[in-house]
Amino acid sequence: MTRWRHAAATDTGLVRQTNQDALFADDSLAIIADGMGGHAAGEVAAAMCIDLVRRQFRENPNVEGLVEAIQEANLAVVSDARENPEHFGMGTTIIAVGLTYDLAGIASPTLVHVGDSRAYQLRDGALRQLSEDHSVAEEWVRMGRLTPEEAAVHPRRHQLTRGVGVEDTIAIDVTSIHAVAGDRILLCSDGLSNELDNDALAHLASAPNGLEFAVESLVSAAKVAGGHDNISVILLEFDEVNVSASPIRRTMSSAPPPASATTRPTGAGRRRRIVTWRVWAATFLFLAVVAGVAAVIHWYAYSTYYLGNNNGALAVFRGQPSGVLWYKPEIVAETPYPVADLRPSDRRAVNATISEPTEEEAITYAKNLYKAGELTRGNLGTPTTTTTTTTTTTTTTPG
Ligand code: MG
Description:
This protein has a domain at 3-255 and 385-392: PPM-type phosphatase domain (Phosphatase 2c, domain 1, 4-Layer Sandwich). The protein is rod-shaped and about 140 Å long. A hairpin with a 2-residue loop joins β13 and β14. Helix content is 35%, strand content 25%. It is of the alpha+beta class. The strands form 3 sheets. Strands 2, 3, 4, 5, 6, 9 and 12 form a 7-stranded antiparallel sheet that branches. It has a 5-stranded antiparallel sheet with strand order 1-11-10-7-8. The chain has a 4-stranded antiparallel sheet with strand order 15-14-13-16. The structure holds magnesium ion. Magnesium ion binds at residues 34, 189-191, 229-230.
């Protein structure tokens, strides 16, 4: 059997215009929600969260019921913010202790937590923090990037890494509370923990003059210290307490559980698959562009023919006389016409290259040049050979 007594108070503080905190406490459940969001949206998120968790947990008072209640509240806040533009960006923290029943029907206290509202355990005047803040600065402390002292004044100490109503999935810290009769549990929003140090919290929350007095003292002290934010406090004191037979301390996520590798890839697997697909697509595109550019260069490099001097005879070259990149001109036809037999002006023209659109026209032009040279020399005979030989693999430089 687990029984607790409880007292609770919430206060707007001295600076805020409205109180966006909400709380609830009875014999089996204690919740604080610190709403965030413009206008009245934070109040809406906090109230929705508390209302849903209360109702769901009443129907299913076990660890799974408590976790599912928060997951449902999360989805409800997310969808409300999507449907109502004035609620865009709203969310809330939650810190709650529920008496959860195990399979044997024994109830023990379980802490659930998202955000930077806090839970402390008090025993014999000593204070121990049960929750870890889900804020950027506190995450950095856990990673060793900041000291607790640096985190306490860090500009990102109020920036949350988790919240109810922020994303479709939510990770919830779930912890079994190990307590003995007489222990107290302090739940509070950051409006209390930011104003009072641990010594003040321990001293005021342990006050022997009843729970209500202790709660009022804590709220008053936070206001004296500045009251910069809404202040919410719940104090529980165990009269009797069971410790869970199967204690829990873990983070439970509402993200879909990974299926077996043979049926469905995990989130990481899917991500890798998407990356691989994109890499292949980008590689293919890149190669296609490179191949296209190479084809255009090749076409340009070999799109023309010209007459040149090949070891003293006219030859037909294919390509650009000075080459294009690595594409050098190549001999496609040799002729029996000695360059020396051409008219002097034609010899100079050959050395400066004479372009023709096709191989056949280039050969015909070579023959005409030779005939013109013969006429000039007064020799009407024909060359010893008129056959042209085609070679397509010889690469040389133009003569
Ligand atoms: Mg707050």
